[in-house]
Fold:
Amino acid sequence: MSGVLTGLAVVGSIIALGWMLRRTGVLSGDGPGVLNRVAFSAATPALLFTVMSRADLADLASPHMLGAVAAFAGAALTYAAVSALAFRDGFGRTVVGMTSSGFANNNNIGLPLTLFVLGDVHYAAIVLLMQTVLVTPAFLTALIAASGGTPSLRRILVAFVTNPIVLASAAGLTVAALGWSIPEMLMAPLDMVAATAIPLVLLAFGASLRGARPLGAGSPVPQVLTASAIKCVVMPAIAYAVAAWGFGMSGTDLFAAVLVAALPTGQMVFSYTARYGVAVTLARDTVLITTLGCAPVMVVLALVMA
Structure:
């Protein structure tokens, strides 16, 4: 219980600091945008490279990995079905809604939370690996397409293969697959830059809330509430069904699978949408609502399953 509360308090305090920095004028003008661009172009790639290069690729075929894929797919498809029936949104907003419904905040909350609660970051790292290898490339490709109207296949491919997030992830996985050992003099600065990724994204997110009214004018409220409900309630339920009934998990393994699925929408969804200017308000408001709404869900899970 204390681990859940501690993890949420850490994230919330940094978001609040970002809001305060914007409120007091320290982050004025395009300050939040600068933070986002630094996170997108340098800090997050460094983080993903360091994580991927040290990953155990055997986890790609583990039950936790397959369960994470199923939970994400179930959440995303649930949103897509609701959107098709009720919202009839365009491609970009639908993709952002689908991703917001299933992309878990493993970096900022998942890693510290699983460490505090379970004493092991392995479970969150598996989902981080899945999201990096499978979800992020597809999401970024969709954002590139949505931001440019109807771009050519060549433009999408060029933008995709020159994307720092994709390049860093691919490089890290290559290092892990080949079993290379990166010299400490190279990894040390990468680790230092990687350590700034989470604070930068959280500060940028908090700063973006200054002057904004979540669920206020201009916010796609039905879409935000739908994505938030799916992320907070439906996705953990899917994860439980898949883990318990599909893979026969129990005890700590089952609790870990459900707890990670109950994480709020990752700030990276907001960061990516802000980078490409696609459905930014939907992503921002869903991140905020799920960060608040998933807290009681995770507390209940800790009480019932831990």
User: Anything to note?
Assistant: Residues 122-147 form the longest helix (26 residues). The CA atoms of residues 184 and 190 lie 10 Å apart. The radius of gyration is 18 Å.
